[in-house]
Design goal:
The chain has a single domain, classed as Glutaredoxin (3-Layer(aba) Sandwich). The protein is of the alpha/beta class. The relative contact order is 0.20.
Length: about 200
């Protein structure tokens, strides 16, 4: 075993330790790039209950840009992202944007309600289950976040903690794109009156 005596060697060891701990906490899956997908698949619909017992369906949000975030109250990276998401909701809700937080807490509303109230989360929270995680490809790490375009197709996936700017860029691009996910700007329709 080699013992590092220089400062650069110690810094290298510390850096490797931090990287190993971060990898162990998040999962073995890499964080996906912020770029939006060209080949988009439909996002699976779901019907999950909010804290009032109302059913929330993804299909009810068709025509909006939607962020679907799988999270839990015990998840450290989730706690970092939630204030960002609250800010995104505040800034973009009048532009056709919505967030649905899917809690994966085993203790259900007993854990989630106090957490939501304490933070003042301003977007819909529902309780997830195994069938919805399987529908989304087997969510293996928290947080996992899907950006869904106005046509209901998955435009981006972030596994683990991503940069705030990655989310912002994707949201801004999807809100600006009225072409239905083709990646090209939409052409306004012309109304022609019959003669």
């Amino acid at each position: 075993m080699r013992i590092f005596t220089s400062r650069s060697g110690a810094a290298l060891c510390a850096g490797l330790l931090v990287a190993a701990l971060a990898a162990a906490c998040n999962s073995s899956k890499p964080v996906k790039a912020a770029g939006l997908k060209d080949d988009r698949k439909p996002a699976p619909d779901f019907a999950l209950k909010d804290s009032d017992g109302k059913t929330v369906r993804l299909s009810d949000y068709r025509g909006k840009v939607v962020m679907v975030n799988f999270w839990a109250t015990w998840c450290g990276p989730c706690k970092i992202e939630i204030p960002w998401f609250m800010d995104f909701q505040r800034k973009n809700r009048d532009k056709g944007f919505a967030i649905i937080g899917i809690s994966m807490d085993d203790d259900g509303w007993d854990a989630v309600k106090p957490f939501v109230n304490e933070l003042g989360i301003n977007y819909r929270i529902v309780l997830g289950n195994d069938s919805v995680t399987q529908a989304y490809g087997g969510v293996e790490a928290l947080p996992t976040t899907f950006l869904i375009d106005r046509e209901g197709k998955i435009a981006a996936v972030h596994v683990g903690l991503a940069a705030k700017s990655d989310f912002e860029d994707g949201i801004d691009q999807l809100l600006a794109d009225h072409s239905g996910g083709s990646g090209r700007p939409g052409v306004p329709a012309l109304l022609i009156r019959p003669r």
